[in-house]
Automatic annotation (TrEMBL):
Organism: Heliornis fulica (sungrebe)
Recorded GO CC terms: SAM complex
Domain named Metaxin glutathione S-transferase: residues: 6-69
Stretches the record annotates as Disordered: 132-151
GO terms, biological process: mitochondrion organization
Pfam families, alphabetized: GST_C_6
Key word Metal-binding present: no
Domain of life: Eukaryota
Gene (name only): Mtx1
Name recorded for this polypeptide: MTX1 protein
Coiled-coil parts of chain: none
């Protein structure tokens, strides 16, 4: 039943697309992004049961639709990033970080977040610091045990 419904859905999408480049004319819409996100994996992935994939491949306009979106928005064929993005490989064969200051920026982000949280905790009264020795009135602060004895 699920395969039958999926086949029917693909057929209806194919009929709706017709000979247009996108579902609503010559420019893509959110529906095109949604449909492509479902069709491209079905078209490109290796599946254990290829019944639905074979049906999609028989609908030439949907195959052309996926291929045109892939070439338009993913010109590097989805496998390798474009040549305009520099990639460096370290001595151990691993890719070097694109941003040389990435670790420093991460550490600074963590420190700023920590300071912000501590500042909020102190200013809101969640955390307070009590100093040892005498209080502002010249008396020793009362501990919980002394307070219970007074009652």
């Amino acid at each position: 039943q699920v395969y039958r419904d999926a086949r029917e859905c693909l057929t209806l999408l194919s009929q709706r697309l017709g000979s247009q480049k996108f579902f609503f004319g010559d420019s893509p819409a959110s529906l095109d992004a949604f449909v492509f996100s479902r069709l491209a994996p079905l078209l490109k992935a290796k599946l254990p049961n290829g019944k639905l994939q074979q049906h999609l491949k028989s609908l030439q306009n949907l195959c052309n639709y996926c291929t045109s979106i892939l070439s338009l928005y993913f010109p590097w064929d989805g496998g390798e990033p474009p040549a305009s993005i520099p990639r460096t490989v370290g001595a151990d064969g691993a890719e070097a970080e694109d941003d040389p200051h990435k670790r420093r920026n991460q550490l600074l982000s963590v420190l700023v977040g920590l300071v912000a949280m501590l500042g909020y905790a102190f200013l809101s009264g969640i955390v307070s610091i009590q100093r040892g020795g005498t209080g502002p009135s010249g008396r020793q602060p009362i501990t919980l045990e002394e307070e219970e004895e007074e009652e």
